[in-house]
Here is the input.
Amino acid sequence: MHSSNKFLLFFFLSFAALVHSEALRRHYKFFVNETSYTRLCVTKDILTVNGRFPGPTIHAREGDTVWVKVYNNGSNNITIHWHGVKQPRNPWSDGPEYITQCPIQPGDSFNYKLIFSIEVGTLWWHAHSDWSRATVHGAIVVHPRCGTPYPFPRPHQEVPIIISEWWNEDIMEVLEEFVASGGAPRDSDAYTINGQPGDLYPCSSQDTFKLNVTYGKRYLLRMVNAAMNEIHFVAIANHTITVVAADASYIKPITVDYVVIAPGQTLDCYFEANQVAGGHYYIAARAYFGTPALALDNTTTTAIIQYDNSSTTPILPTLPDYFHTTAVYNFTARLRSLGPLWYPINKYDKRIISTVSINSFPCQNNSCAGPNGTRLAASMSNISFQLPSIDILDAYYYHISGVFGTNFPRVPPFPFNYTGSDLALYLQTPERATEVRLIDYNSTVELVFQNTNLLVGLDHPMHLHGYSFYIVGFGFGNFNESTDPLSYNLIDPPLRNTVLVPRGGWAAIRFNARNPGVWFLHCHLERHLTWGMDTTFIVKEGTRPQDRILPPPRHRPRCI
Ligand code: C2O
Ligand code: CU
Here is the structure.
């Protein structure tokens, strides 16, 4: 080749690389700091990333590695979790405090390495220390590999839709009050879409999130439920919604009038701007609580889809009622994975059954705000999980004893009629412990969550770090080991990272334990997480070097 041609080729290649790296950055900087925000006419400082609420979106491509350097410029400890990013062999950057790392102290920083593998679609990141995820969260968009199109019609525009909550009070005070009282936490003052409560709340209509649309175009909504404590119904007036992915895994497209999204979950869905008459339409979200017995916040947050800039009043969609359990599971039952399964799941090596319960502890002088003066708690298999003071990953990797036990049971310690009514009071008190479950490398695990009616039966969005799992079945009543597996979907079950366990029922998931590490498993309703509806799976290492945990990063926060 002539030398000037070589030069031209070199020039062209570096130009192409430049264009590419501009579209998808490999390095992000997250400055965690207090920023002043006003909502509902209340101005206060909230913890943010780069001054934004919700925080910045991370863009990646399938199979990428991305670095995010987090600088803690706030006044409390913090960690960040990359929810749904499986982090193969790399639990060091997973984020949950005292599980895989010690928190980043004020003034310190940590460089997280995000290893993407099969995820494609929408995920999210959030703080994973105390309750700071209330304001410290944002979307992760994983684009398909270069040259690979979406398996659905190309959207004209893509928009994150992040459902969250706003408290007029400082979130650290909400948490302190909650823990001190022993009762339920105070409700937030508004639900929000992209940080805004919307028209139906006092002094919010100026700032409602608006999406301008053009007739005949298609819009992809990258939806995240970042709310702390509520599952949500979401609908768009006069428009149907086509769901194409759940938890960053494609599904067979379904067209619905409303979607159900639990904290931790994400949905990719599109709508067609097909209203000939134009006009304004609300996207509305409202909570699902499962039972009329809980008088919780039944307000509605809205955003607006507008075809023009007229001042017409938007139309509200109808949403299912806040206790409409059938509406929830009619929706989730329709989710089916699109492509072939990533690994065989027709057999499993070990079945683990765990109850998920709301409980109570006795409280001195019966002075707590739980039922009859008790302290509210929660558990898995009757163990209310206690966070240790050195992270479990370090303790495991460096053989530090006395930090955790390995006795998380394979089946609940004593059987009872889990979904019966009027359950004996003595069943309500769990034990406090830090017990993990060891899992053999490369084994196929079936995990059945059995909900109980202790205190109050509620739906629980259970989230496993380090994995996506196939949801092979769910049902109502007590799980029956001989009959229920007969109705499993082993053909095209959805691949998710957060499964909704029905109140008064059960849900079964399967996964192949090929990701060695220390992986947190917990309810994604923040109050239940705080109460101890958590455990940790330690997936052992395989024998080949490529089946081992990666070496720890050089600089990591220390526990003091
Ligand atoms: Cu979305 Cu343990 O987290
Ligand atoms: Cu829960």
User: Anything to note?
Assistant: Residues 3-23 form the longest helix (21 residues). The chain is about 10% helix and 35% strand. The domain at 157-332 is CATH 2.60.40.420 (Immunoglobulin-like). Confidence is low (pLDDT under 50) at residues 6-22.
